[in-house]
Amino acid sequence: MFKSFNGLIDIKFENKFWDIEEIIKKQTGTNRVKIINHKFYETGADLGNFSPEYIIWAKKIITIEEIKELLPKKSKDSFDNVLKKINGIYLAVAGGNNIKKFFFAEPIRAISINGVISDHTLPNPISSTAYTNMAVCLIDVDSTFNFGKLQTTDRRLVHDCGELYLAIYRNAVVKISEKIGAIPTIESSGDQVEKPANIVKLKDLGIESSLKKVPIDENALIALFFDLLGQNKIKGYEFYSLHAKQPYDAKAMIKTKNMKSIEKPTNDSDLVNIEFKLRLSELLDDIDDRIKELKKITLIIVWEDDISNNPNKPEDYEVIDLEGSRDENKGFYGVKKCLLYKLDGTEKQLFIMKDFISELKH
């Protein structure tokens, strides 16, 4: 309400939807929700007997060291540049009922600029989406608003904050949700890898191959690619190594459509990186977590493109046709698509095995 006193106007807000800790502190009764913020999800500490309805993990994080504790071990030092511009992070994780009870109807995940909410929302994950609506996150940054006072002028900062949140989500939010026993929302069939009870009931590939069923993990995809390569149904690729513990899966030489033959490498620097993923979203997760760099990959091989028709598809990436791309005249065998990173224009050729198999059948 508004109140005039000595020429001044005071604005008072109902104490709701602003700070979940303040709201809960004012609750009374035996079933009051308990707030925790220690790193129990990493240590495996026993929380005792409780109902998920009466526990919320919430924390105001103001130091770089505390933010890094929420990140995957492999990418703790990959966000140093953006962390210097962050004033703090507010993160709350709870079951869906508690989130809706104490916050607005839809959980807020946004960027604020020196304490003022902006028009920038944080992205939803495109895989592992079960706990998306169980998290509330606000990342406050040191930046300036544009003329309209709704967004920051630093577009790179917005992108980096999005990647930071996705890394926090996949590491901390998922672990916290699982540990407190929160009931996840139902994922669509395209968001998760199916774990069949009976392998022989998997869908047949429908082509001549020593692998009979549709791949359900990365190893099966790699086996299928090499099987078709050995049958000469895939051509123009010579592999020099495969890696399980290196940043990228394979080193190879590849023939483009404007080359007469595959060149022979004179040293390791001539070899190019190839990355295999069952789904394209899995690679984007690794890129967002700073585990892999798109610019260092020459060819991406996936079973399927699961982002183009995904309602949570990232704004900064797009699957485009090879025809019309920079690599139109130097495409690799079997490639019809490219992955475009819109922020800097990087384009990487994308071999989609599911589409290739469909063409083989016809």
Give the DSSP E fraction (strand runs of 2 or more residues).
Answer: 15-25%
CA radius of gyration is 24 Å
Label the structural class: alpha/beta
Largest sheet: 7 strands, mixed
User: Which residues form runs of ≥5 with pLDDT under 50?
Assistant: 185-194
Order of helices and strands: EEHEHEHHEHEEEHHEEEHEEEEH
Number of domains: 2
The overall average pLDDT, rounded, is 83
Primary descriptors:
single chain; 362 residues; 7-stranded mixed sheet; 6-stranded mixed sheet; 15 strands; 23% helix; elongated
Give an overview of the whole structure.
The chain has 2 domains: 2-179, no CATH class; 193-361, no CATH class. 23% of the residues lie in helices and 24% in strands. It contains 9 helices and 15 strands. It has helices spanning 20-25, 40-43, 64-68, 80-83, 96-102, 155-179, 218-230, 280-288, 353-361; strands at 2-5, 8-11, 34-36, 55-61, 86-93, 109-113, 116-121, 135-141, 237-242, 250-254, 272-279, 299-304, 317-321, 337-341, 346-352. A 7-stranded mixed β-sheet has the order 9-10-11-12-15-14-13. A 6-stranded mixed β-sheet has the order 3-4-5-8-6-7. It has a two-stranded antiparallel ribbon with strand order 1-2. α2 (40-43) links the parallel β3 (34-36) and β4 (55-61). The chain is elongated, with a radius of gyration of 24 Å.
